[in-house]
Amino acid sequence: xxxxxxxxxxxxxxxxxxxxxxxxxxxxxxxxxxxxxxxxxxxxxxxxxxxxxxxxxxxxxxxxxxxxxxxxxxxxxxxxxxxxxxxxxxxxxxxxxxxxxxxxxxxxxxxxxxxxxxxxxxxxxxxxxxxxxxxxxxxxxxxxxxxxxxxxxxxxxxx
Length: 159
Known about the structure:
By secondary structure, the chain is mainly α.
């Protein structure tokens, strides 16, 4: 009975990871769309529409990187039999080759806090440029997470 419960729990985790990866792909698509728009902006002459695009970019960046860490990386951790605080999750993700640098992800989280609190002297153009600088690494991490999650041991077991 206990082995059956473990198998069910493990299958539930595998199904959750698969669903999280699908959600991440949607978040990635939205982030990539905003990235394309914001890379073409003239940051020296922003219009009201440009400010809305920057707001969309930053919101999508915050959501996508939060979801990635709290859902995808944690699900992988759980399937690997690991648990812990965010720092532990990031350290193990770096060791697994999913993220390139723990420090870079900590910098992203600090940027998220700057965005949320809109620090004086740190305007929309600064925010957008910082977000745009992080996006290639973030998207690369998403790709590596999808590849890692596609490993045979993470497939749903039949029977």
